[in-house]
Amino acid sequence: MAKRPLPGINTAAMADISFLLLSFFLLTSSFDTEQGIPRRLPTPNDETPKTMQINQRNVFVIKINFNDEIFAGGEVIALHQLTERTKEFLENSHNADNLPEKELKYINKIGEFPVSKGIISLQNDQNTSYNMYVQVQNELQRAVNELRNKVSLQYFGKVYDRLDTTSQNAVQKAVPGKISEVQPSTFGKDE
User: Fold this and answer.
1) What is the pLDDT of residues 98-118, one digit of tens each?
2) Which CATH architecture has domain 56-144?
3) How far is CA 189 from CA 60, 70, 71, 81, 137, in A?
């Protein structure tokens, strides 16, 4: 008695179906895209940078050392304190002599507004963790955002994100949020 051949399954159609399913899932799924920190970079310039005279009271120095400790205004502070300290510095609501000067400027849609000359100088060690660097950047941006919301509510009755583009530009001029980053260096507690 001769063996009967076993019936086989035609797999050519299964390869086509597999390819279609794979294509479908690739096209419909979303991938996590990492976002960077939004910062305005200086324009490229062949000239050597000109030195600017900045009044020391207008600079808020924040340092992050190799142990991820934050020094603000010469003292160690916790990360959660950074937002309030930055807002206090930029706003200078009591016109204190040790906080930034204000310059009265005319801003379209707002009118005369006392704009802070404050600059935040962020310095970090070469061994500062990336996580701490990003957390500090987030706190600084939170401080600027909260001040912008305060001005937005005062002049437009809405939070900053809900304003039209020209109103947002006006609020940005009122609360500029200048952050300067210095080349990473090596420093410890004594600086």
Assistant:
1) 889 999 999 999 999 999 998
2) 2-Layer Sandwich (3.30)
3) 17, 10, 8, 18, 21
